[in-house]
Amino acid sequence: MTRAPAPAAVLAVPAALDGLAAYAAFTYPRYRPLLGPGTVPDHTLPQADACFAVTAADGQGRPLGLALAARTAPREGRLLSILVAAPWRRQGLGRRLLAAIETAAAHRGLDLLTAYYNDGLKGRPALEALLAAAAWSPPQTHEVRLFGRASFPARAEPDWRPFLRRVEAQGYSHSLYAERTPADEAAVQALCASDRVEPRLRPADWLVRPADPRVSILIRRHGAVAGWVLGEPGQDFDGIHYTLGYVLPSLRRAGWLIRGLWEVVRLQAAAYGPDHLAVYETNGENTPMIRVMLERLSPYAERIDAQRVSRKPLAP
Ligand SMILES: CC(C)(COP(=O)(O)OP(=O)(O)OC[C@H]1O[C@@H](n2cnc3c(N)ncnc32)[C@H](O)[C@@H]1OP(=O)(O)O)[C@@H](O)C(=O)NCCC(=O)NCCS
Description:
Elements: E1 10-12, E2 51-57, E3 63-73, E4 76-84, H1 93-107, E5 112-118, H2 124-133, E6 140-149, H3 152-169, E7 172-176, H4 182-193, E8 217-221, E9 224-233, E10 239-247, H5 256-272, E11 277-283, H6 287-297, E12 301-313
Parallel strand pairs: 4-5, 10-11
Antiparallel strand pairs: 1-2, 2-3, 3-4, 5-12, 6-11, 6-12, 7-8, 8-9, 9-10
Coenzyme A is lined by residues 81-84, 89-95, 117, 121, 123, 125-127, 129-130, 133.
């Protein structure tokens, strides 16, 4: 690639993002609404007033690069994107943008910045090298996501029949989450109040979008609530995103969650048709589940990807 001569890039930290429409091409399409005037339509995006940016422009004010970040907690933030125009890469501009957004974050009282990115990102080697050069933590797997069609249970059933029967013989059953009784709800709440449900797996903390009533279930053991699999409409795809799957610790590694997942996708096929997209994700630290996804589910999947995470503690 031919590189432009190093421009005298001017960095700036704008007071607000709504005048940055000229930088729209310098971030993911998803974040572009944050840069123009007007309201942000998607409530899953950070609020515009929580976001901050560093711009890089040449002497004539032409955009060369953008780093975009958002406060996500009182003292924590997320690097949403960083991009330098292709002809100006490898000349230190990315490094300057990153240092400037870190400083801007520290000025806002943040003491940690986190970056998430997909392992399929085209610019991943450059991004990882840039972050490493700026003393960000070595990347770790944050989440693994599996993309498949709702026809998966029908396709898997012949091979999976012995497994499905085995879990049923252990007392498995399920019911729609939307049809839970007051006693079921009390059982869910009691579980959540105990130390047996990790905070991020509690339905109460699951607030991004309402659970889809047709595909979300309670898992039961001999009738008693033993877990749940909840799906929500995909944010940027036409399908269901299964964002929350929990079973009692004593039932883990025995196939109960997979049995529940098989069931919700079967319900999905009935409700939305066999070609509807089903996306299941698990935390990057859940290595047993990741192994199951790779070994048992991936033959029925179209794609698997992983989200990576890197962090930088900020000096005050
Ligand atoms: C990632 C990106 C912002 C880096 O910008 P840049 O201006 O080229 O980075 P710098 O020139 O400041 O590089 C700083 C250091 O990062 C590392 N680095 C950057 N790009 C690299 C590459 N392609 N390969 C290896 N190392 C690289 C090097 O250590 C480099 O230092 P060096 O040039 O002294 O060896 C740029 O490549 C980019 O815009 N990529 C496309 C967008 C993207 O994928 N963004 C990430 C997701 S939002």
